[in-house]
Amino acid sequence: MMISLLTMLALSANGISTAPSSIEHQRQTLAAAKQSFDDAAKIGSRDPDAARRGYQNAANNFESLIDSGVENGKLYYNLGNTYVRLGKIGKAIACYRRAERLSPGDANLVENLRFARSLQQDRIAQPATVDALRYLLFWHYGLPLNLRAWAGASAYIALWLLLAIGLYFRPRPTALKWATASCALVAVSLAASVAFDLYAGHASRAGVLTADSVILRKGNGDSYEPRFDYRFSDGVEFTVDEPPRGDWIHVRLADGKDGWIRRDQAELI
Amino acid sequence: MTNRATLLLTATLAGLCAASASAGAIQVSAKLSSVTARVDEEVVLTVTIRDAQVVKTPIIQRVDTMQIALVGLPSRSSGMNIDNGRVQQWNEWSYRFSVIPKKMGRLTVPGVRVRADNKDYTTSPLTLVVGRGESGKPLIVEVETTSREAYVEEPIKATLRIWLRVYRQDDLTLNPRQMWSIVDGRASDFGVFGEPAYVDMRVREESDGSAASYYVFEKEGTIYPDQPGPLKLGDIHVTVNYPQFLSQGVFGDLQMTRSTRIAGVPGTVNIVVKPLPDDGRPADFNGAVGRFTIASSATPTSVTVGDPITLTLEIRGAGRLERVSAPLLSKVESLSREFKIPDEPLAGKIRGDAKVFTQTIRAANDSVKEIPPIPFSFFDTSTGRFETAYSQPIPLKVMAGNNLSLSQVVEAEPARTRPAKPIVERNEGLLANYIDDADLLKTQRIEFGWPWAAAGLGFPLAYMGLVVVQRRNDRIAGDSAYRRRTRAESEARRRLSAARSLAGAPAASQLAAAVTGYLADRLNVPGEAMTRDEARRLLADKNANPTVAAEVDGLLADLELAQFAGLAAAPSSDLIDRATGCLDNLESERLR
What is the pLDDT of residue A179? Predict the structure, then answer.
């Protein structure tokens, strides 16, 4: 029964299975993307135009894979690398941020995201509390969502099994008590972390500017005056904390500046 | 109160009259419903006269190229504007003329003469482009530069211009934003320019006589040609899904029912890129094109011989800073004579509008008084000549000390010996892609469905079930009365079965023991040798149903007879049935 329940959870967690023909098509698309990227990397300095076409082709194929339902951190990472090569820093950072959400502990990803941000022209001050939070809530920021959900579910099941075993011991052994308490702590921590992500996904979304020379306006329309005497460049990161109004979204930068931009000037993560 | 109202009314009327009297001068204007047309296609010319009291029918000069006729009666409208508390009345006359072109080409609609309030006014002539209809290309991409020639690496101001033919269907005309939405952003690349913005609507005539109205989108950018010859624009391409038929959705929104995919790339730009001349090229020229200045600073400026001095060079100017390389300091004779300098090329960083290079140098002897001016050569595109900028000298105080140590010399001359400095990982650049198919094709998305809910609820419920069972077991184990009560019926029925196989007095004794034992177990009283009287009293004490009590008493009386009077060799099935019936009845009694 336990195995069948875990199997059901696994099927539920991984979504709907993909048809074999679709898998074959995905394999071909991935192979084409990898080949285009490698070819472009080989000729990069000799023929920049051809390299650019190759990278664009690779990006299109990676995007097709994502459109077909494949979603994982490494795929977004590769797509982010491709956009860096194409000079599309905003799109690259958006991809890396999506990859970070799926594979937060990936050292290569951290490195390339840092590099992409270094290419971004506008320097927006980051709040200092973020690093401390990341340190304190290491499991929340360090583990992918699906791993946290799985670990939480396992701890939850173990908790009830240990409680059940405890019924047959009078008194309960100390080790059993500690094990039960540990499972409860792990299950609650991970469940809260997963619940926060799911809630935060609805309440506030992160995003990145993908257009250049973006004007933050005072309201949701071109008729509103610019909020700042400055045009923000591709790659500036922000959060959105209220529902969009038509084609416009209200964005808040890391240093607290806020304003309205057209939705097609950014990608939400 | 009445006086006050009269005063207010009078003041208002006076204000209105004054406003009317002070209305602006007469304004006469003319407008065409479309600036393009086909031969014999009607265009409406509307003449508007504003703020005139008396207007005579406008007159328009006849021309051979088109047929012009007044249509219908003039319309008159009037109104009142209130601007910052100021009331202004206006009135407007409108006359409509039907204009039917009879010839292709760029035609001129003559000015209209209007007599209003005894004064003559004439509108400006208008241009009407008559062709074979809206037959121009749906998408035109072009790049325009302000200059016709440039040097390699010289920044060229250019404009990317995208023409999208205005889509019309019956009375519907798409606006610029709707037209821009047909551009496929994923399949388009605007190169160095980025996404263009709407500028205005223009008419474009082609050499074959066709003409069409276009929305024009533009974006300025800077191109740096990297080789002589025709200008290479990079991979600029635009793809649109141009509508062929639009329909309205349920909520009134427009939906593209049919479209055609069109791609456009810019044509050749009319500019010649020239190579840099060889004449006058300085020996230290390393490819900088533009106009630059160089500044230097050093820390510390008071050292002993051999101490490291951090020399910082800042290059500013109009040019492509990211391509600017640092001057090769080891080749600067005035510097290398007095200092030990590494001769590897420097990697600079762009800070604001400057590129900054730093290098560690060491004074070779205590006679050094300054860091000499550092030259930086560049090709000035405005003069077409090579120029050299110099930094200011930096005074130094160098004190005598140890001669340069071997390691210091080694550090300063890495080309000849192995570098002594630690290996430092570089921060620039990307780490490689992942290549494992299984990793790249798996899905990490998580969806919380009913199995999660089932697991979430199932385990606590199962646990609660176990708790209930265990409590019941505990109660049975610790409560003898409860234990006897719960086992009373099964024990009695076991005795009844045993009685069926016995005969005579033992059988009757067994039946009596079954009934009295049941009562003793059920009511938790000592059960050994309970007499008939004790049973009767017990049932009476416990408020048993008198009928049931009487039935039990009768049965026990008959069993006593059978036991002690030897009435039968074996208990009759009647006695066993009666004993069974008594047990059933007692079982349904609430004995307390």
Answer: 94
Pairing type for strands B385-390 and B375-380 reads antiparallel
Asked if A32 contacts A54 with a C-beta cutoff of 8 angstroms, the reply is no
Domain boundaries, chain A: 16-119, 133-203, 205-268
Query: Is residue B2 within 8 angstroms of chain A, CB to CB?
Result: no
Q: Among A222, A266, A173, A204, which Cα is nearest to B185's?
A: A266
- What number does CATH give the domain A205-268? 2.30.30.40
Q: Residues with Cβ < 8 Å from B556, sequence gap 6 or more?
A: B512, B515, B516, B532, B535
Between A164 and B342, where is the model more confident?
Answer: A164
Closest chain A C-alpha to B470 CA, distance in angstroms: 8
Query: pLDDT-derived band of residue B422, with 50, 70 and 90 as boundaries?
Result: low
Rounded CA-CA distance B243/B262 in Å is: 10
Whole-angstrom distance, CA of residue B491 vs CA of residue B515: 10
What predicted TM-score, i.e. pTM, was given to this entire model? 0.41
Token pair, residue B312, equals 């910082």
What's residue A130's pLDDT?
A: 59
Q: Which two tokens stand for residue A203?
A: 């309440």
Query: Which ranges of A120-173 would DSSP assign to H, the alpha helix?
Result: 129-136, 138-142, 145-166
How high is the pLDDT of residue A131? 65
CATH superfamily, domain A16-119, is Tetratricopeptide repeat domain (1.25.40.10)
- Model pLDDT, residue A93: 94
* E strands, B137-289, in order: 139-145, 149-151, 156-165, 168-169, 172-173, 197-205, 211-223, 229-230, 238-248, 254-264, 272-274
Q: Which of residues 78-107 of A touch B (CB under 8 A)?
A: 78, 81, 84-85, 102-103
Q: How many CA atoms lie within 13 A of B68 on its CB side?
A: 23
Task: Give A 28-67 residues with CB within 8 A of chain B.
Answer: 30, 34, 37, 48-49, 52-53, 56, 60, 63, 65
B-proximal residues of A, 141-160, CB under 8 Å: 144-146, 149, 153, 156-157, 160
Hey, of A3, A6, A8, A148, which one would you mutate to test binding to chain B, going by the most B CBs within 10 A of its CB? Answer: A8
Average pLDDT over residues B255-262: 81
Alpha-carbon distance values, B122 to B31, B35, B48, B67, B277 (Å): 13, 20, 12, 19, 59
Q: Which of A78-82, B106-110, B430-434 has the highest mean pLDDT?
A: A78-82
Contact (CB, 8 A) for B106 and B205: yes
Q: In B, which residues are within 8 Å of A99 by CB distance? A: none
Residue B228 and residue B275 in contact, taking contact as beta carbons nearer than 8 Å: yes
